[in-house]
Design goal:
Blueprint lengths: L2 E7 L3 H9 L4 E7 L6 H10 L5 H10 L4 H8 L13 H13 L2 H11 L5 E4 L6 E6 L4 E3 L4 H4 L3 E7 L7 H9 L2 E4 L4 H9 L2 H9 L3 E5 L14 H12 L6 E5 L5 H8 L10 H6 L3 E5 L13 H11 L1
Parallel strand pairs: 1-2, 1-7, 2-3, 7-8, 8-9, 9-10
Antiparallel strand pairs: 4-5, 4-6
Helix pairs in contact: 1-3, 1-14, 5-6, 8-10
Keywords: Cytoplasm
Protein name: Gluconeogenesis factor
GO molecular function, one term: LPPG:FO 2-phospho-L-lactate transferase activity
Length: 313
Amino acid sequence: MVKKMVAIGGGTGMPVLLRGLKELPVELSAIVTVADDGGSSGKLRNELAMPAPGDIRNVIAALAEAEPMLIDLFQHRFTGQTGLSGHSMGNLLLAAMTSISGDFYNGIKEISRVLKVKGNIYPIANQNVVLHAEMEDGEIVTGESNIPLANKQIKRVFVSPLPVTPLPGAIEAIRQADLIVISPGSLYTSVMPNLIVPEIEHALREARGKVVYVCNVMTQFGETTNYTAGDHIEAIHNHIGADIVSAIVVNNSRIEQDIRKNYAEEHAAPVVYDIERLKALGLEVIEADIIDHHQRKLRHDTHKIAKLLYDIL
């Protein structure tokens, strides 16, 4: 019987994770944030009152098995001084298909069919949602793109308008999954918007499969400055409780000095893996070399992480 795996997240970490997982003999589902409000996504969202398509577009491209030229076309971003400048073709296609079908999720399904997507893709909501952050000093910052710019300690994030209603297929996928993976990515603006939806939280709590968090390798300025792996986990605990995530995957390979230097210019540093604290928090700690050593920008290695997760499964 084919095992079922669910990945939850968004941002740049999610597609990296999915590109490797789609090669595995698993039934795959991706649950993706739609809280983005910057760039092309933000423009389409504001002008057409649709969920933000950017993270969904990247997940479709990662899971697509169509001809490479079609995927390149889907990911093409217009430049220059025209009205299309900044928009990606995929975002425009998602907007058009949403208009034709009258429904964002139906639009995703149709484009997924055309691009031969492996697996199911569910937006966290079929509606336009706005992300907010309450800072430790009490300030409320509205908008996914504004939250890291505030450069303050984040106390919690929340979404509006309520209620946010996830798709029934997403809830069922979590409940039936043999393994649920919380993907790496911006902790508060890509990962947390999915987890804090009450029905998603309840489904995770009732899930029969293990819930594994793949921890970020680097901190992110304005979101997780100076965060250790334990701080990442405690942030998740503070939002959805301490009894959902049962394991964490951390990188144990050396990060080269020139890469550290490049990230230091962005006020980012390697995440410190405080193993004893993680164990004290009740987590199984899975250490491995999970990064791609051949890129100047630090990324999880799609094949290494996929193999590790399949071994867990």
